[in-house]
Specification:
Layout (H helix, E strand, L loop, with lengths): L3 E4 L7 H12 L4 E4 L4 E6 L3 H11 L8 E3 L6 H4 E2 L4 H9 L4 E7 L13 E5 L4 H10 L3 E2 L14 H8 L5 E4 L10 E4 L6 E4 L5 H5 L6 E2 L20 E5 L3 H17 L4 E6 L10 E6 L4 H17 L4 E5 L7 H11 L2 E2 L1
Helix pairs in contact: 1-5
Length: 339
C-alpha cells in the first residue's frame, strides 16, 4: 500500500482535498488526520471491517477500545443512550475540545469499536480540518492516535509517516497539533464521574462544572490510554520524580553512571535546568511554569531522541497540576523505571 499525503492549510481548507480523504473513509479505508491534541487514525465507526483495519495497522490489541469523533454535538444522541443531564453543560462549555465522554452505547455501534464494552467514548475535536473531514465523511469516525501501538503519539504528519507509512491510505497534513497530549477521558456512567485518562482538560476545570469527580484507580481497561505501559519511545525512559536541586543531582548522577557504561544518554529537562547538564545530550520540555508548552513538546522531544538513536532517556518530572497531571501520566507510562 502506498500512503498518500494530502497537505491542507487549516486557514484555507480545500474542499477538493477533504473530499478525497472523506471518500476513502466511505470506501472503508484509513485516514490519519490532525486534531487539536494529536493526530488520529480514522475509519468509519459504523463499518466493523474498516475499524478492524485500525487494529491491524497499529498492531493494537482488540481489547483496547476506540474513541469515536463527531462533527456536531447532536450526533452524540445517535451513538449513546441514557445520557445524564450533566452532559449538556459539559458539551456546552468544553466541546469542541480535548474532552472525551464515556456513556452507555447505542445498539448501532459495532462491538469492535468498544472492545465489547457496553460503553462508548465520544468526543468533538477542536480542529477545523478534523471537523470538516468528519462532516464530509458523513459518518462518525473511530480514531485512536495515528502511531504504532504503545509508541509516543504523533503531533505532526511526519510522526505518522514514521510509524505507519505503507500501512494506511492517506495522511492529512494539517501542521503541528496544539495541545500535544490526548484528550481527557471522563466516564459519566460512574457516580461520581471518573477520569479514566487525564488529558487536555484539567481536573481543576472539570471541578468547576461537576460537583464531584474522581480519578480512576482500578486496572480494568475501560478506555484508550489505560495500559500500564504506553506512549513509549524506542529508548528506555527513566523518570526522576524528585523536586528542585535534589532532582537535578539525581539526574546528573544517574546520567553519569549510565554514560560510564557506554550507553547513549539523553536528558529530558525543564527549561530552567538547561545549563545544569553540561556534556550531556539535553532536550527541553519547556518552562516549569508553562505546562501548556511542556505538553505540546512532550511527544515530539521523545521522538527526537529516538531519531538520534539514544538508548536511555532520563526525564525530569513536572508538578501535577493542570496539564501537569496529563504530562506525568504519559511519562510514567512511557517509563520503564520511576525513581
Amino acid at each position: 500500500m502506498k500512503t498518500e499525503i494530502i497537505e491542507i492549510n487549516p486557514e484555507h481548507i480545500s474542499p477538493v482535498s477533504i473530499k478525497i480523504a472523506a471518500k476513502k473513509i466511505q470506501e472503508g479505508g484509513l485516514v490519519a488526520f490532525p486534531t487539536e491534541t494529536v493526530y488520529g487514525l480514522g475509519a468509519d465507526a459504523l463499518n466493523p471491517k474498516a475499524v478492524a483495519k485500525i487494529f491491524e495497522a497499529k498492531k493494537r490489541p482488540l481489547e483496547d477500545p476506540l474513541i469515536v469523533h463527531i462533527a456536531q454535538k447532536e450526533d452524540l444522541f445517535t451513538l449513546a443512550e441514557n445520557i445524564p443531564d450533566i452532559t449538556q453543560r459539559l458539551t456546552d462549555e468544553l466541546w469542541p475540545g480535548p474532552l472525551t465522554l464515556v456513556l452507555k452505547k447505542s445498539s448501532k455501534i459495532p462491538p469492535i469499536v468498544t472492545a465489547g464494552l457496553g460503553t462508548i467514548a465520544v468526543r468533538m475535536p477542536a480542529n477545523t480540518i478534523a471537523l470538516v473531514f468528519i462532516e464530509f465523511s458523513q459518518t462518525p469516525i473511530a480514531a485512536p492516535s495515528a502511531n504504532l501501538f504503545g509508541r509516543s503519539s504523533p503531533i505532526c504528519a511526519q510522526h505518522v509517516l514514521d510509524d505507519l507509512d505503507g500501512r494506511i491510505d492517506i495522511i492529512i497534513d494539517g501542521g503541528k497539533t496544539i495541545v500535544g497530549v490526548e484528550s481527557t477521558v471522563l466516564d459519566l456512567t460512574q457516580n461520581p464521574p471518573c477520569i479514566l485518562r487525564p488529558g487536555g482538560v484539567s481536573i481543576e476545570r472539570l471541578k468547576k462544572i461537576l460537583k464531584e469527580v474522581e480519578i480512576y484507580k482500578e486496572k480494568k481497561i475501560l478506555s484508550p490510554g489505560m495500559y500500564r505501559r504506553h506512549y513509549s519511545p524506542k529508548a528506555k525512559v527513566i523518570l526522576v520524580e524528585d523536586d528542585g536541586k535534589v532532582q537535578v543531582e539525581k539526574v546528573r548522577k544517574l546520567a553519569s553512571c549510565l554514560n560510564s557504561q557506554r550507553c547513549s544518554i539523553g536528558i529530558l529537562a525543564k527549561e530552567e535546568n538547561r545549563d545544569k547538564y553540561d556534556g550531556f545530550n539535553v532536550k527541553l520540555l519547556g518552562p516549569e511554569n508553562d505546562l501548556t508548552v511542556c505538553a505540546a513538546n512532550l511527544f515530539s522531544v521523545l521522538r527526537e531522541f529516538d531519531k538520534e538513536g539514544v538508548d536511555i532517556i532520563v526525564a525530569e518530572s513536572v508538578e501535577e497540576e493542570g496539564l501537569g497531571l496529563a504530562i506525568m501520566d504519559r511519562l510514567r507510562k512511557a517509563a520503564g523505571v520511576v525513581l
